[in-house]
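User: I'm preparing a small set of examples for a lab meeting where we compare how different chains pack in three dimensions. I only have the primary sequence for this one, and I'd like the structure in token form so I can line it up with the others. Please keep the answer compact; I'll paste it straight into my notes.
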Amino acid sequence: MLAAELRLHDVRVLVLEKDTEPVSFVRIVGLHIRSLELMAMRGLLERILERGRQRPAGGFFAAINKPAPEDLDSAHAYLVGIPQPVIVHLLEEHATALGAQIRRGCAVTDFEQDDDGVTVVLADGEQLRTRYLVGCDGGRSTIRKLLGVGFPGEPSRSETLMGEMEVGAPQEEIAAKVAEISETHERFWLRPAGVGVYSVVVPAEGVSDRAKPPTLDDFRQRLRAVAGTDFGVHSPRWLSRFGDATRLAERYRVGRVLLAGDAAHIHPPIGGQGLNLGVQDAFNLGWKLAAQVRGWAPVTLLDTYQAERHPVAEDVLDNTRAQMALLSTDPGAQAVRRLLTELMDFDEVNRHLIEKITAIGVRYDFGAGPDLLGRRLRDIDLKQGHLYGLLRRGRGLLLDRTERLTVDGWSDRVDHLADRSAALDVPCVLLRPDGHVAWIGDDQQDLDDHLSRWFGEPAN
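Assistant: Understood. Below is the structure token output for the 460-residue chain.
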């Protein structure tokens, strides 16, 4: 995703992937509302919807089964489950179509940075020179470790098995047993994931070495221990295990080296936020790093990446900590869960938690102003179609209901649409390439000041 965002601004980019082949196991991942909006902004959503399966947006906070409010502030108020190899292929195809280079079987073992760039060393001894390096290399990030960035947090204290497999037991038997066990074990479920296929989650206590991939026998053993039956599970599609380790990098940038995705933060997968958090990191960083490389970035622009995304990750880590506590079988935790289940019947509570999980509640701190300032703008109707269709080139956009403002001097970086009919309750908004509202008003001088703040000095 980051490579594609950089290519939108004609920045040369090389992706180094240590694996020789794309991931082959068919694990289903979920795209929440904000990620779907970002995909729509870049023209990817239709392809994703063709290959994924839509699900309601509710029921994700600590697996408490409450429906989402019907009037969530998005044109894409649903979740899409999509096989991991499919989303990887779609994003790779998107990046390479824009001109990104991808080299597989290339593990980074070292790097050294100076005032002008970074020298990257590969496992075979090859050295590459780049102006910037971004570590998108996961929770055990080599780049983060070499950079010496601290990764404070809590180690894993509980382990859970998760997988998809075929089940031999009758559907009625499964439903009855799951209903019974779920009353006391929140980290346990069998849910349909296709014809004859179930998603299976069960506590992993006492089985196998965490350093080794789990086996089907591990699932059978734990299912029998918890439910008294293994449900005749067989023919697994994929098997994994996860813990509740929760860590956040102290810094997202040191000089010319940056971190994104799981390299910057890890947390339990409860709520399905991890993939989405990483994609949204990339969307925030891409245009800023491109501006730095292209030479028009304001002095502090690249620093706003950490300033904006680090607090978002902190909030995700906190809500996953809370969700994991609510999955405990401890009587106190179960009492709190019952109370929260009651509270979620209030629309404001349910809405607040869903906006956290789906990231549509994120508001960056751009200073004092209306509530919309710093938030993303939904995909509103315009005379030229839908708003997100105008953001595909990754440029800023002035949406001008006064029809008298201008972006002269910044027109190489910012588009201008004069539209009195735009579905807004403010005169004008300046959108960044990531769709967040950077300015609201109707005064040209004030607009020029904010154009300079986000898009650098005007061209001569």
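A couple of notes for your slides: The chain is about 30% helix and 20% strand. The longest helix spans residues 303-326.

User: Perfect, thanks.
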